[in-house]
From TrEMBL, chain A:
PROSITE patterns to which the protein is assigned, alphabetical: PROTEIN_KINASE_ATP (PS00107), PROTEIN_KINASE_DOM (PS50011), PROTEIN_KINASE_ST (PS00108)
Protein name: Cyclin-dependent kinase 4
GO biological process: cell division; G1/S transition of mitotic cell cycle; regulation of G2/M transition of mitotic cell cycle; regulation of gene expression; signal transduction
Database matches in Pfam families: Pkinase (PF00069)
Any single Gene Ontology cellular-component annotation: cytoplasm
Alphabetic keyword roster: ATP-binding, Cell cycle, Cell division, Cytoplasm, Kinase, Nucleotide-binding, Phosphoprotein, Serine/threonine-protein kinase, Transferase
SUPFAM superfamilies registered for this protein in UniProt: Protein kinase-like (PK-like) (SSF56112)
Catalytic activities: L-seryl-[protein] + ATP = O-phospho-L-seryl-[protein] + ADP + H(+); L-threonyl-[protein] + ATP = O-phospho-L-threonyl-[protein] + ADP + H(+)
Bias-annotated ranges (Basic and acidic residues): 305-314
Organism: Gadus morhua
Keyword Lipid metabolism recorded: no
Top-level taxon of origin: Eukaryota
Segments traversing the membrane: none
InterPro entries, alphabetized: CDK, Kinase-like_dom_sf, Prot_kinase_dom, Protein_kinase_ATP_BS, Ser/Thr_kinase_AS
Automatic annotation (TrEMBL), chain B:
Gene this protein is translated from: cdkn2a/b
Matches recorded under PROSITE patterns: ANK_REP_REGION, ANK_REPEAT
Protein name: Cyclin-dependent kinase inhibitor 2A/B (p15, inhibits CDK4)
Record-linked Gene3D superfamilies: Ankyrin repeat-containing domain
Species this protein is from: Gadus morhua
Presence of keyword Ribosomal protein: no
Length: 314, 128
């Protein structure tokens, strides 16, 4: 970690904030390119930075060595001591100047093609599979931090910070969107990497709908909206360690998923429901989702190509 | 946070509705935020709707970064966002602008391998 070394980054705008610190869009004055700066203030003592922070930063740096095409580059890490008891750790990330939200908004009616959606999903799952196999969960996946380059390459941002933040986060509640949160988080049960698959399922549906699938206004409202689509889970599936009870929800007659995502094929609907499975242990993994028939299906263009070739054979 | 700070942040996050709302509430489209930059200079380059909104409200297209001389057209060219680049040109952004490294937008597009942007800017040059 560079301590007080040269810092060629100039902040140009605030692009996110929270209890833990602020996220900036900045310019690297040496290359002229934009970067994203994420800072976290950590308490230090005579022994220096807490071991938990050092461990998390080391993990992010280790991930960086793989140079994975579907996660943003971590370009630099700087630690600047502010006072005797506080150090500011700044992570410098590659900044991709378009997110999936903007990308979907820009798509001309009637929206993205089936092939484009499949390609985006493959890249998203590939990035996620990489993070998960390195035991990193994202925990806050949403269209705003799924970035898309001008060439259509997907890059996940804002991963791996959750744990650094949560170690040092003040008790101030941060306003974060509920829309991509899985039931186990909303219920206050324990959670792990399947949280990101749930969020990916919500994003998958949104690629077709071009608007979010579950727009809850409170945690209970969010759960209610989820059960209207996936059905109320059975008493056996309901987690034992939570205070919210199953009886608080009406058992709705839930219509088929294709009512909410009309253009979805049969196999697409099957994959979506495997991602939106209530029980996190039964939910499909990123690597298994990549192997799903829906994503393995050949692109329409290829199929047409092979048909033409077939026709040419006498 | 002033209105311009908010407008710059909304532009930088590609928040079209937020930009519209702040402009309606009187945020100065050519004001600078506390980092000395205009909303157009910091906007999410892929967000063509935000670019169009700001420019249609009279945002000056050729304000260069004080440290690097980079204009929004340089940024759009380097990042390869042809759609935003075209909107900037429509509102009289200067394709001949040079940054402090003596590069024009077309040079940055070429360095980043955005052939479509390079081709477009070369055609434009020939046409003029």
């Amino acid at each position: 970690m560079a301590q007080g070394a040269s810092f060629p980054y100039e902040e140009v705008a605030e692009i996110g904030g929270g209890a833990y610190g602020t996220v900036y869009k900045a310019r690297d004055t040496e290359s002229g390119k934009f970067v994203a700066l994420k800072s976290v203030r950590v308490q230090t003592d005579q022994d220096g930075l807490p071991i938990s922070t050092v461990r998390e930063v080391a993990l992010l740096k280790r991930l960086e060595q793989f140079d994975h095409p579907n996660v943003v580059r971590l370009m630099d890490v700087c630690a600047i001591q502010r006072t005797d008891s506080e150090t500011k750790v700044t992570l410098v990330f590659e900044h991709v100047d378009q997110d999936l939200k903007t990308y979907l908004e820009k798509a001309p009616a009637p929206g993205l093609s089936q092939d484009r959606i499949k390609d985006l999903m493959r890249q998203l799952l590939c990035g996620l599979g990489f993070l998960h196999s390195n035991r990193v969960m994202h925990r806050d996946l949403k269209p705003e931090n799924v970035l898309v380059t001008s060439g259509g390459q997907v890059k996940l941002a804002d991963f791996g910070l959750a744990r650094i933040y949560s170690c040092h986060m003040a008790l101030t509640p941060v306003v974060v969107t509920l829309w991509y949160r899985p039931p186990e988080v909303l219920l206050g049960s324990s959670y792990a990497t399947p949280v990101d698959i749930w969020s990916t399922g919500c994003i998958f549906a949104e690629m077709f709908r071009r608007k979010p699938l579950f727009c809850g206004e409170s945690e209970m409202d969010q759960l209610g909206k989820i059960f209207q689509v996936i059905g109320l889970p059975s008493e056996e599936e309901w987690p034992k360690d939570v205070t919210i009870t199953r009886k608080q929800f009406l058992p709705p007659n839930h219509p088929p998923i294709t009512n909410f995502v009309p253009e979805l094929s049969e196999q697409g609907a099957e994959l979506l429901l495997e991602m939106l499975t209530f029980d996190p242990l039964q939910r499909i993994s990123a690597l298994n989702a990549l192997e799903h028939e829906y994503l393995k299906e050949e692109e329409t263009a290829d199929t047409e190509g092979s048909t033409r070739e077939g026709d040419a054979i006498p | 946070m002033t209105l311009v700070d908010d407008l710059a942040s909304a532009a930088a996050t590609g928040n079209t509705a937020g930009v519209e709302d702040l402009l309606r509430r009187g945020a100065d489209v050519n004001g600078v935020n506390k980092y000395g930059r205009t909303p157009l200079q910091v906007m999410m380059m892929g967000s063509t709707p935000v670019a169009r909104l700001l420019l249609a409200r009279g945002s000056r297209p050729n304000v260069a970064d004080s440290s690097t001389g980079t204009t929004p057209l340089h940024d759009a060219a380097r990042e390869g966002f042809l759609d935003t680049l075209r909107v900037l040109l429509e509102f009289k952004a200067d394709p001949g602008a040079r940054d402090h490294f003596n590069s024009r937008p077309v040079d940055l597009a070429r360095q980043s391998g955005h052939d479509d942007v390079v081709e477009f800017l070369k055609l434009l040059e020939e046409a003029n």
